[in-house]
Amino acid sequence: MNTFIGREREQAEFRELLAKKNSSLVTCHGRRRIGKSRFIQHCAKQANAFFEFSGLPPRPGLTKKEQLTSFSEQLSKQSKAPQLPLDNWSTAFQLLASQLPSKGTVVVLFDEISWMGIGEPDFAGYLKNAWDSLFSRRDRTVVVLCGSVSSWIEENILNNTGFVGRCSWQFHLGPLALSECQQFWGRSAARISIAEKLRFLAVTGGVPRYLEELDTKKTAEQNIARLCFHPSGMLFNEFDSIFSDIFHRRATSYREIVRTLVDGAKGVDQISQQIGRERGGSLSQALLELVSAGFLTKDVSPKLSGGIAKSQSSPSRHLRYRLSDNYLRFYLKYVEPHRDQIIKGRFKSTALEQLDQWDTIMGLQFENLVMDNLGAILEQLRIPQHTVLYAGPYRQSKTLRQQGCQIDLLIQTKRSVYLCEIKFKSQISTSVIQEVDRKIAALKLPKNQSIRTVLIYDGQLTPSIEEDQAFDFLIPASELFAI
Description:
Radius of gyration: 25 Å
Mean pLDDT: 91
Distance between the termini: 22 Å
Largest sheet: 5 strands, parallel
Strand order of the largest sheet: 2-3-4-1-5
Shape: globular
Number of helices: 23
Number of strands: 12
């Protein structure tokens, strides 16, 4: 698909940068395959000139010299400069600056910036000097530092004292909203059911590169089988390449951490115990990088029975890491265990919808998808985002004084708690009412808080659910696509 989809707010912000007379230094980060480069390329069409550079992917033995050679080659293809041997990054940036046109708006993209700096510990310093003495002195210049390793950008640019006050904008690109994802079905969108779209999106999430692989002539299950359960499928091989590309030598240990979260969120102590590594130090850094890369979400659950203030006073007690990336979760839980069988071709003739527990699998993946579209849920509930104290899954442990319960999505504001039940079933019976009633009875709330019930669903509701007004809010998935 050649048409650029979504990112309207971010595009408007980028247009403001292009309209400035002064130069701008910008960072753009987000999950691998989220479309960062494509976004900058699209926005740069409105500039008079565009230069794009990308570091070589990491591999054993890769050197600074090879990165500089690649940079020189890329520059010669985009300008009149000959391909010259370069000794250091200072010379490389000077050569680039000499090739920028004297007038007009220019966008310069340094893509996968952490790769570019491989082999040069002072790369950030060279970049800072080039910005100060070269790029910032040219009017109407936008320099974009882009990367999948968000922690590198934070450590070397955003939190680096040498760059203080220099960044004009920090773009974070997350998954596309459901309303944007729908556009990948093109003219077929009106003919495809919401349920079928959700089954495909439950595996891919709102990752544009994965959505580009959608074949609208095939069913959701046929697309998932082709991409995930075939030895040559893109999403069958994606897991290993993602970690190798982003985390290099740390890939194995980072995969190990992610695997511990497949069956549910865990605290640092639980993760530490399961993988046999001490908490703090390298484990804390790894969790930070996995959150920054967009694979994990860090939830600090409120201790509802003790009030908001108490939960904020000791957040580490309630800190849990959740595997929030739909693709990673699906791959680890449902594809990797069958990897050897898939390679041997034993899934070629298997209809996924006939697999044991397939509907349950889709239901759990749908819950994850809803979390990624929290903004649309808040809009349906008319809750201003700035009033939200907590929003995420909630688990209340069983003790001698209280019952245990698990809530799909709990949203807390100063005055109210919204208990959200998430269902993805062809038929939704009145048993959902009893489920929610049990959770309400178990939940311990401060005296000054009200509780409101929400059903977020796709499927056919038993008529009495609506007739009896059993829920304060009913949010069909179709409404999330419309926002």
